[in-house]
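Pasting two entries for a bug report.
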Amino acid sequence: MHPYSVLIRPILSEKSNKLRENSAKYVFSVRRDADKDDIARAVERMYDVKVLDVQTLVKRGKIRRRGNHLFQSSSEKRAFITLAKGTKIPVFEDQ
C-alpha cells in the first residue's frame, strides 16, 4: 500500500494534544484496510521519524435520528503512533 494513501489526516483535538505533549503519541485518521505495519511504514517514510508502537481504534458511526429518518454517521479508524524518545513531527509542533 502506498504510504501517502494510508494516512488520511491528523487528528487535532484537546485530547490528542495532551497525548502528544505528555507521552509523545500522535493521532491520525487512517484507511480502514491499513494494518499496523502499513501505518508505521507510512509515518516513518513521510515524516522521517522512528515509530516505536502503533495502536489502532475503529470508531463506529453513531445512529442518529432527524424526525422520522434514521441515519448512521461514518465510521473511521484512528491510529495512535508512539515515537522514539526525543523525536517529533514538525507539522504538529507548528500549531
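Entry 2 (this is the one that rendered wrong in the viewer):
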Amino acid sequence: MSETAARRATVALALVGAAVAAYLTITWAADVAPVCTTGGCSEVQSSEYAEIVGIPVAALGLGAYLAILATALRGGPGPAAIGAALAFAGLAFSLYLLVIQAFVIEAFCLWCLVSDALMLLLAAVAAFRLRAASPA
C-alpha cells in the first residue's frame, strides 16, 4: 500500500469514525437514547464510564478521529508517525472500553463496536502508512 493510498483510506475511515463519535456526543449531550439494535446503547451511554472528568468519551473519540484526519492531510514520516501514535492509542482505549462493556457493564453499544472496528482499521492502515512514509 502506498502512502497516498493509506492517506486516502485514513481520511475515509476517520470521517466515518468522526460521524459516529459526533452522533454519540450529540445523543449524550441531548440526553436521548441512540438508535440501537444491540439493546445496550442506552446502558453504555448512561454508565459511569461514558465520561471522563465530565467530558463524554464520545467527544474524546471525536477529537481523536479529527486529529487522525488532520495527520492524513499531510504526507511524510512525521505526520505518519503522529497518526500512527494516535491510532494505536485510540485502539488501546477502544479495547479497554470493550472490556468494560463486556465484563463491567455487561451490555454492548452498537455504535461503540463500530467505532472500535474503525479504530482497529485505522491502526492497521496507520502501520502501512508509517512503513510507506519512512525512508528506506
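Dev reply: Rendering is fixed now. As a check, the viewer should reflect this: The longest strand covers residues 51-52.
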